[in-house]
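Batch 3, record 17
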Amino acid sequence: MIAQKIIEIATLGRGSTNITTEVERIVAASGIRTGLCHVFVAHTSASLMLCENADPSVRRDLEYFLARLAPDGDPAYEHSLEGADDMAAHLRTILTHSDLTLPVRNGRCALGTWQGIFLLEHRTHSHQRRITVTVQGE
Amino acid sequence: MIAQKIIEIATLGRGSTNITTEVERIVAASGIRTGLCHVFVAHTSASLMLCENADPSVRRDLEYFLARLAPDGDPAYEHSLEGADDMAAHLRTILTHSDLTLPVRNGRCALGTWQGIFLLEHRTHSHQRRITVTVQGE
Amino acid sequence: MIAQKIIEIATLGRGSTNITTEVERIVAASGIRTGLCHVFVAHTSASLMLCENADPSVRRDLEYFLARLAPDGDPAYEHSLEGADDMAAHLRTILTHSDLTLPVRNGRCALGTWQGIFLLEHRTHSHQRRITVTVQGE
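Prediction for the assembled complex:
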């Protein structure tokens, strides 16, 4: 069995959005009990991660870390047509994940207690982001 | 066909554990000859990687690299309730992989000669880590 | 349905090769309309990424970024038997991706407009790289 759905998420600019509920809803609707759930973001300036879901300071510290690692407006970047956040957004995407695959068990994503599925917006302005969720199994 | 099994690994604190044999055993037992093998770690302070499996100095150099990149006890971190390694462990997890998918071919994971599947423990103390392995194919 | 094919790519040393066309050809030949396409590189010094496919300056800036993050010939590396690029190549592999999974929709990889599938060669010399593509679906 295969189910495939597209979610649209309007981000508010750089930051993270917990999409676990949206993904779990698609898994539940698929009727699949055992298999895999694949989540894919069709952009090069937004990405996905699994991250601690309880304490928002983890995501604030991640922002501090990424801003230091791949700073906006590095004068060495050639690719800056869309602004100081343009190349930094591509680097943040490459260092995180465009796709995640999660085990489906007993009709749900078998995540750990503290794992949430997050969409990361890497541009400073808001964007509409398209996520494709595919569930395969039985 | 789908097979899904859970492995429990007791880590000895920060470091890597080669779990290739455990994963291959599940693939062999599944009877699946062609398809995919998905490996998933259900934690936010432990992760997975494919890495050179022959020379342990690669993993020592990786530890040196990660310790410099995402140091324990960075005074800028807010998230430090569980100790100096708390936020660093989340960052190391995000920078590596919570899930790996490997091709299954002729009833085995079609890894390269030098590729091993490693569980990475990012906390300084030992932990019990849960890994879900799902094999899909025919 | 499952289709599995192996592609061999001769790289020209450190740099990126757009393999989107080769992957799409395998998806089209499989006859699968809805499902997943898995791409896997069986090496520890070469990897995969999804990246902006239009402006080559993105990949030049990425090279600048990776060279600063994981420099060749860091005197702290123990693992240097094959040269100054040996350990740096393993680190670049771990920080990017050995496997990518892409949604298949309407018989094609449902990539975003600006997403290309790139093979990254991390060694300075040319190598023959083996990529396994597996398509599952219906």
